[in-house]
Sequence to fold (116 residues):
Amino acid sequence: QVQLVESGGGLVQAGGSLTLSCAASRNIFSLDAMGWYRQAPGKQRELVALIRNGGRRNYADFVKGRFTVSMDNVKNTLYLQMNSLKPDDTAVYYCNAEIGTSIIYWGQGTQVTVSS
Fold:
């Protein structure tokens, strides 16, 4: 049982920055992975960034060099630092947590809107 609550979304101008947070209801050090996905209207949900318990990170090609995913085990919080934002980054961003290969938890999402 893991509850995830995203925050930090909002409206920014192109080229600006936002930091998203995902607060978990329990310790996250034992989770196998946590990550960020996003979904724009009319599009499929897609991976943005993932961090595994061993520290290995995966990034979608469209955010490499701009976004950084990190995890604070003391605060039980996952972060996504988003720099050089573009209008195409506009979407609802979702936090997820994975245990093994079959258990996945999702947050409710936070809206990110990038204007030109």
The radius of gyration is 13 Å. The first strand starts at residue 4 and ends at 7. The mean pLDDT is 95. The CA atoms of residues 37 and 46 lie 5 Å apart.
